[in-house]
Amino acid sequence: MLRPALRRGLAENAVARHGTGIALACRTFDVSETGYHYSPFLINENEKIADFLVGLTVAWKTWAVGLCFQHLPNVQGYPWNHKRVYRIYCELELNLRIKPRKRLKRDKPNVLAVPRVPNVTLSMHFMADHLGPSHACKHAPPRNGWSSVSALERAGIFKPRGIGRRGRFFFASRTGYSQP
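The chain above was modelled as a monomer; its predicted structure follows.
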């Protein structure tokens, strides 16, 4: 099915080139006679709206049709209909813009610590607990009565920062070092 504007153009072409009557051309191409005689008088204004929209979207890349439309009557003073502005916005395919994503800057990871004594691992396994409505802490579960971190601490190989010791459990507060 052809668009009405294209059918109207075909009817006008048939009347101009082949000398057929307007009524016959309109029936042939399924166009009403009022549609045949219609002439849009706002084309120049549509181009003006399009220029404003392109300028606004170039200047403000994060603005969509809503902010562009609010800018036109409130700042520029043009009383254009929001449906008309949206139609032109879509015809310009500005609604299909891909907004650039903000990339996260990631630091290079620190070099892993190498143990001074062979067959010793420096990894910890933490479990989370909630001590109250705003106090969350993490602790290392005991293994065979003593934690492996505790053994590393006693040997002087591992000195943790921000981790305290209470009994046989290790804990670290989310807000910083907690006293045992």
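The radius of gyration is 37 Å.
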